[in-house]
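It is worth pausing here to work through a concrete case rather than discussing structure prediction in the abstract. The textbook approach is simple: state the sequence, then state the predicted structure, then interpret. We follow exactly that order.
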Amino acid sequence: MRRISLVIAALVLAIGIAAAPRHLASHTQSGQDFVHFEAAHVRPASMTPDGNRLLVVNTPDNRLAVFDLTGAAPARIAEIPVGLEPVAVSALDNNTAWVVNGISNDVSVVDLTAMHVVATIHVGAEPNDVVFAGSPTRAYVSVSLEDAIKVYDPATLAEVATVPVNAHKPRGLARNAAGTLVYASMLQGGNRTSVLPASLAAGNIPDDPNFPRTAGNKQGNPNYPNQDSPRPAVGAVIQYLDSGPSGAGWYDEYAGYWSDSVPYTQTEVDVAEINTSSNTVSRNFGQIGSTEFGVAVNPVDGKIAVVGMQARNNFRFEPTVRGYLVETRLSFVAAGNGFVTNRILNPHITYLNLSGLVINPGTQTERDSAIATPTGVAWAASGGRVYVTSLSTNKLAVIDPAGSGSTSEMKARIRTVAGPTGVVVDDTRGLIYVVGRFHNQLETFSSAHMDSVAVAAIGFDPTPDDIVNGRKFFYGGFTSSHGDQSCASCHVFGDTDNLPWDLGDPAGAYTPPPDPNPLGLKGFDPEKGPMTTQTLRGLTSTEPLHWRGDRADLSAFNPAFNSLLGHSTGALPDSEKAAFNAFVMPLAYPSNPNQYLNDSLTDAPSGQPSAERGRTFFMNENVDGQRCVDCHNLPAGTNRQMVAATSLGIDQDMKVPQLRNLYTKTGFTNAAGATKRASGYTNDGTIDHVFAFLQDPRFNFGPVQTADDTRRDVAAYLTSFDTGTAPAVGFQVTFNGSGNPTGVAQVDTLETVYAHNRCDVIAKGTVGGVARGWVYIGGDQWTSDVYAETNLTTAQLIALASSPATALTVTGVPKGSGVRMGVDRDRDGFRDRDEIEAGSDPADPASIPPAGVAALLRRAGEGIEMVKPNPASGPAEIVFSIARAGRIDVEVYDLLGRATRTVARGAWFTAGRHSVVWDGRRDGGRDAGTGVYFVRVRSDHGAWTRMVTMHR
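Step two, the predicted structure:
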C-alpha cells in the first residue's frame, strides 16, 4: 500500500507543479544564530616574546585577533578562527600561540606564520587559562570543572601530568620569572562559610538586636488565623574561624560555637603554588577572598598579586549587606614566607557608621571613583606598579604596591573602554593595552601619562544589540549605592558564587498564599533563611523564579536594585529594566561534560552507577505516587509548580527547581574531615550528594536490596542532565595530514547529531594559502564560502587537509549558527570568500560587493535549499537562504492550492541560511495525508517554491 501511494504521488507531480499556489503566507520563530554563553575573559590578551605582536581573543566571533605593534598604534593584521568562546591566549614563542576555548573545552594551537589552527587539544570541561613554564618548557592549563591544572608537552601535545587542586574552579595562571613556579587563582575559593541545618539552628540562633522581627505585618498564614505568623524554622550561615572565643571551629554571627555539631572542617585555598619540577602543589594560600579572578607575579621579587572579592555572606539579613555585599580586593602574597596582605581597592568608600550599620546611599564621589569586579591584573617590569582592570566601572586602577596597611596606594583611576577585562603592559614602548569586553575593543594608553593613545575594534562582534545594551545594567557598579556592587558581585558572569546568603528582612511583610489555596501553601515569610546563590542561566520558561518561587519573573527582582544594592534612585526604570532582562534571559548553559558526544549517557553493569538506567527510572517509575519526570519536567527539569512545605518536610514552600546545573555542585562532603566546599544541593546547600538527597524516605526506590543501586543510577542521570546545549556544540577535530581515524569517526558523530537537529557543523581551514570556510548541510554535503563552488563530501573536505600548511578544523556549533560561523560571518547574505574576492569586507555588514556582482551572488544565494527528509512521513525541515534581513512567510499548500499548514507568517529573519520545521500536520492539528505538497517561502523581494512528498 505504501508503494502504491508513492506511485500515485509521482503520477500527479506534473499537475502539482502547475497547481502550485501563487500566494503563500506563514509564521515561525525567526532564525537564531547567536547563543549567549557569556564566557568570561581570563587572559584575553598577551604579547609574543619579541614584543612585536599582541594577541587578543575575539570571544563573540570565536577568533584570535593578531595586532602588529611596530607602528604608532596596534594594527590588526589577522583574524584566525579558533574554538567557541575563547577566553585566554598565551604565546609559546613568536610563531605559536595557544588559545583556551571556554565552550569548546579545548586549546587551539595556532601557527602565527600561516595564521591558522594546526592542532586541537581536548583538555577537559570549561578550561580557563594557559601559561608556559618549567624546564623543559611545559604548558599549564587550568581546567575549572575538574579542579585541576593539566600539564602538556608543547612538542608532542601529549598530557604529561595532572595536578589536582584542593579548591573549586581554578582560573587564572601566572609563573615566576624563572619559570620554576606556577600560581593558580580559584574562582570559587570560598570564605569557609557553610549552613547550619534548620534542625540545629531553629530556636538556637538569637534574634538580631539590630533587626528585630516586626510583628504587625505578619498576618495571613492560613495555619495561624487572625494572628501573626511565626518565623519559619530555617538554618543559619556559619563560618569556620582559625581562632575564636572557643578556639578554632564553626561560629554563627553571634559567636555561637557549632563544631560539636558540624562534623567537617573546610579548607580555604584561594591560590595554589605548583612546583614545575615535580608538577605538584607545593603551597596553598588562603584568606584572600571568596572569588578570585586574576593573578600575576612581580618579575623582580616574585611577589604574587591577586584580584578578587570577599563576600559578606557571613552577615545575616538583607539590611546588613545592602550596598555592601562584597569587598573589592587586591591581595599580595610574599614569595618567601607566603604572608598574605589584603588591600582594599576602595579605601575612599565609607560603608559603615559608628554602630556598624551600612550607610545608604553613598556619595557621588564614592561612585565616581569606585573599582569593582577586578578581573585583570598586571605588573610593570620594574615591579613598581600594579595595574588592575575594573570590569564594572570601566576603569584601570594604577597602584603602588609599596603602600602599607590594609588600603591600597591608589595612584590613579583611568577611564577606559567599556567592560575592561584584561591588561597587558608593554614596557619597551611605554604602552598599556586594555581589552574592553562590552564592545569588543582594544584601547592603548601611554604608561607615562596614562593618556589614551588609540582605540581599535578587536574584530567583528555578532552579539545582538539587546545583549550588548543590557550588559552594563548587569555588571554596572552605577546600579549600587557606592558604585562598587552589581548583580555580577554574586551572580559571577551570570552564574553563581556558590555561597549561602541569608537575605531575609525581619521588618518585611508576610505574603499570604493564593486564595483559593488547593496546594496547601503557607505563603512567604520575609525571614527565609540561608539560600545558595542560583545561576541566572537558562531562566527562560522556568518562571516563577527563585528557590521559593516568590518572584513571578525576572522583572519582579527589580526592587532589589534598591533593597539589596542600595541604588539611590530605587528600582531601574522600565527601559533599563527591559535592557537588563534582554541580557539575562538568553544566558545559556555550556554542555554537560558527563554526556557523550552523541548525546548518549553512561551505562554500566548492574552494581555500578548507570546514567542510562537512571534515566529510564526517572522517566517511568513511581517514587512517591508519581514519576520523577512528572515534577521535574523536561527539558529544564521543572514543572514550574510550587510544593507545599508539609509535603517537603520543611517549614517553607518551595518551587520545583530546574536540574540543569547539578553537575557543578559537587565537592561538599558532610562527614568528618576537611571539605573543599561547604555547600551542595537543595536550597540551603546542606545536602552534600545527590545520592544523599535521594535517601529521603518519601521516595520509593523499590526493594531494599536494590534501592541504593537504583539511587546511584538516578544520581548519575541527574548529574548528566542535559543543559540544553548539546555536547557536540563546541567540539572540534583538527586534520593536518597526519592521519586521524578517530577524528573521522568524531566528524561522523557530529553529522549524526546535526541530523538530530541538535547542532550545526562547520569547517575552517587553509586551501592554497587562502583562509576558507564550509558549513555542513546534511546528506554528506558541505557548502563553502563561495556560492558557485560545488559541494564537497566529508571525505573530500578532509582530504584538503594534506599537511599542517593546509590544516582544517571541524567544529560543532549551536543550531542555527552554522551559516554565520561557517560561511557568512557578517550575516549580509554574501559569503565570506565571495566578499573578499569582490573587494568587500566579510566582517562588515555595511560593506557589500558592487551592484553587478551583488545581484549575481544574491540570485545564487537565495531560495529554498532543501526540504528534508523528502519523501517525509512526519516532520520535515525546510532549509532556505535570504540575502537581506526581513519578514518571511512560510506555508505549505496541497495540490489544489489550498493552504495546508502555516509554518511562519511575518517572522523576522536575518540575512543568511535558516531552517524551520513543518510538523507534518494540517493547521487543525490532523496529520497531512499521503500526497504531494508545496512549500512556499516568501520575502518582500522574492518567493520560492519546493515540492515535498508525504507518505504515511
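Step three, interpretation. The mean pLDDT is 92. The two ends are 10 Å apart (CA to CA).
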